[in-house]
Structures are given as structure tokens and as C-alpha cells.
Amino acid sequence: MSPFLSKLGLAAAQFGLGAATPPRGRSPEAETQSIFSVAARSGLSVLDTSGVFGRAETLLGELLPRPTPFRMTLAAARCDRGPDFIEAEARASLGRLKITRADTIIVQSAGELFGPHGAALWQRLQKLRDEGLFAKIGVSVHASDDPVGIARRYKPDIIQAPASLLDQRLLVDGTLAEVAGLGVEVQLRSIFLNGLLFLPPDRIPAPLKGASSSISRVRRLIAEGRSDPLQAALGFALSRKEATVVLVGVTSAAELSAVVAAAASPPPDLDWDGMAIEDPQALDANTWAAA
Question: CATH number, domain at 132?
């Protein structure tokens, strides 16, 4: 197996489970089974279900191959309803997925740790880890969350952070290298920056139009380097020494097959540093939520 392919993990949030069956084409359930077949055959080891909830989680539990070949990551519930609710939801998630334990439970927003229930949240997750329901505790962060401060204060096992060919902020300033140096596993997410690199200029959402010229420049550099956006985005993320896992989201088995093929190839020889963009709108998660 390619050393880069071995770092690839799968995020389930885009599977479409729980959505209405499309009028034409395969159902989300059939597509998910095919995705799992490709993932297992390709040796992907991590399945992040932290963006899947309720009925979709139940469906996922029905579709997972058994024995499950993946290290499973679940989401912790929001902490505003107290630690007992967090524990109950964690146990319910395990039940819906039909597993007795998972590799990791993730705090989905680092800001929760600094709220009035943050200490109780963290203590309860540590308790669940100590009881063996989870092997690790993680925190999902944004660039503005001071990942190094969180790593030092809470000592999580894992930090999930956004980093991509376009958004290199946490890499350029050494943040993720410092986090990894503290013994915290770094997992990269948002490596396609919501697909911005793949969108033609006329399809970029209005709030993000300011980034159009920068995206066009990056696409030109990739083409001149005889590569394509998928190979470039994956090659950049998978070649980062700071990260042990690179999470990707797909909507079909065909998409995952394309990702696996690109990940198994040597990364293209491109000027990575010259491809970072600095447009604050494009790099702001709140802008994407409103787009």
C-alpha cells in the first residue's frame, strides 16, 4: 500500500443517509454500501461519523461491514444540556452504530470547552475513555481557536484541523507542527475547502467571488504542472508530515475510487507555497455557512 494512501480517512457526513431517495439513480443506502466496499478494499482505516446523527446514524449502523474494518470516530453531543446528556448520547450513538466501543469521540466545537459546561464536558469524556468506550478524545478546531493552547491545556489525544492547498495558515505558521510535537495526533479535514478549488468561476458562491482570481491562478499553476485539482489537493495534504490522517468526504463510490487512485499516485511536483490564498471570506467557515 502507498504510504500516502495509508493516511487516508473517510468522513461520512456527505453520504446523504436519511435523505429522500433520488428519482433516478441509486439510493443513498446502496451508494454507501459501495463506498464501504471501496474503502475496505483500499485499506482506509478511519471512518469519521461525527457529522452523522439520528436516523442517519442508525442507517449507517445497518450498512457497516462486519467485522468493522475501520477505526470509528463519533461526535460528542453539545454540552449545554450537561454531562449526563453527553454520556447518554455517546452511548446511544454506539448503540445506533451497533458497536460496543469506538476509537475516538470528538468535541465538535473547541469553543464549548471554554463555556460554562466545558470542564464538565471534558471530565465526562475522560471518564468514558477510562471506562473503555473510547480509546481517544479529540477536539475539532478552526484556525482562530488557538490549537496549540488547546493542546497544552486539555492534552487531547487528537486534534482535527482544517488545512488545504488553499488554506495553509496552520501549516505555514507552524501551529500544527507544534501540536504534533506535543504528542497530539493531527488529523486534517476540509482539505478541499468545500470544493472551492473544483468550482468554475461562474459557480463560485457570491460571498466568495473575491477569491475568483486567486482560484483561477492556482488552477493555472496546477495545469502548468501537468496535474489536476484533485491530485494537487490530495498530494499536498497527504504529504504533510504533521498529519497522521487526512479525512475526505465523498458522495459516491465513484468519487472515492477517484480519490483513492489519486492518493495512490506520487504527489505532483508543484509550488505548494505559491498556491495558498489569503482571501478572508473564502477562509472563513462562517462565510461558507451563509453561502
Answer: 3.20.20.100
